[in-house]
Amino acid sequence: MVNGEKLILDGNAVADSMKLQLEGRIKRLKERGITPCLATILVGDDPSSATYVRMKGNACKRLGMTSMRVELSASTTTEALIAAIRELNEDRSVHGILLQHPVPHHIDERAAFEAIAIAKDVDGVTAVGYAQNAFGYADYPSCTPAAIMAILAYYQLPIGGKHAVVIGRSPILGKPVSVMLLNADATVTTCHSRTSDLAALVRMADIVVAAVGKPKFVQGDWIKPGAVVIDAGYNPGNVGDVDYEACLANASAITPVPTGVGPVTIATLLKHTVHAAEKLGG
């Protein structure tokens, strides 16, 4: 809390700060004849996925970056998708590759992720990228976990020595944010669908990260007074994984949905793409 007031963690403010820092880097790259380029791959016609891809493309354009959009039909095979990814790996004008999740069920998503060259894995989805993140030296950690860490840093919320409870263990959110918090000297409990007495564990947390994919899953009476609540969920109707109003009563700081983690995730993706452009050149 700030002077007794609840601290609403405004993701737009964090994202704007990050983008401002990118402007000079992009300008210097362009002076060298290099325009950072993010290639997004959309398989199928899921409307939510299409919206996310469009948002990322628009964010690129607003910063003067290039967005290359690759659209494949829902009937695309794993082999065809991997072939398209390999083409982008070889394209020197492309600096970052993002495969929009989820892909149709018949596709081996893990095989497709692993086809992305580590130098262009700006969304942090490969096994090598995850391992580098675990050891604390990844250039491109998974974007939403990195966004969560950026929010905590921007608002100078302490992590070292705190007990963080992460609800969710997906390989691109729950697991990587757990290891990032651990590397920042938090004591971390990672919970999942088979965790016993989840509410009791959450009540012990100084930092709660909700990444479970269920609307209003985290209840207000689960939150320890003064805890920091990070809602990394997004469900239909602009609803997060946290019962916002109920959790706000006990939390000292909390992210709203959709203006919390989401904008910072996109800004992180742009930051990673610019970094990749600086490393790869044209």
Quick take:
With 282 residues, the chain is an alpha/beta fold. It contains 10 helices and 9 strands. The chain has 2 domains: 32-117, Leucine Dehydrogenase, chain A, domain 1 (Rossmann fold), CATH 3.40.50.10860; 143-261, NAD(P)-binding Rossmann-like Domain (Rossmann fold, 3-Layer(aba) Sandwich), CATH 3.40.50.
Secondary-structure topology with pairs:
Elements: E1 7-8, H1 11-31, E2 37-43, H2 47-62, E3 66-72, H3 78-90, E4 96-99, H4 109-114, H5 127-134, H6 143-154, E5 163-167, H7 174-183, E6 187-191, H8 198-202, E7 207-210, E8 228-231, H9 244-248, E9 253-254, H10 261-280
Parallel strand pairs: 1-9, 2-3, 2-4, 5-6, 5-7, 7-8, 8-9
Helix pairs in contact: 1-10, 2-10, 6-7, 6-10
Pathway: One-carbon metabolism; tetrahydrofolate interconversion
Binding site for NADP(+): 168-170
Family: Belongs to the tetrahydrofolate dehydrogenase/cyclohydrolase family.
Protein architecture, described:
- The protein is α/β, with parallel strands linked by helices and 282 residues long.
- The chain has 2 domains: 32-117, 3-Layer(aba) Sandwich (Rossmann fold), CATH 3.40.50; 143-261, 3-Layer(aba) Sandwich (Rossmann fold), CATH 3.40.50.
- It is 41% helix and 14% strand.
- It has 10 helices and 9 strands.
- The chain has helices spanning 11-31, 47-62, 78-90, 109-114, 127-134, 143-154, 174-183, 198-202, 244-248, 261-280, and strands at 7-8, 37-43, 66-72, 96-99, 163-167, 187-191, 207-210, 228-231, 253-254.
- The strands form 2 sheets. The protein has a 6-stranded parallel sheet. It has a 3-stranded parallel sheet with strand order 3-2-4, with helices on both faces.
- Helix 7 links the parallel strand 5 and strand 6 (187-191).
- Helix 1 (11-31) packs parallel to helix 10 (261-280) and helix 2 (47-62) packs across helix 10.
- It is globular.
- The N and C termini lie far apart (46 Å).
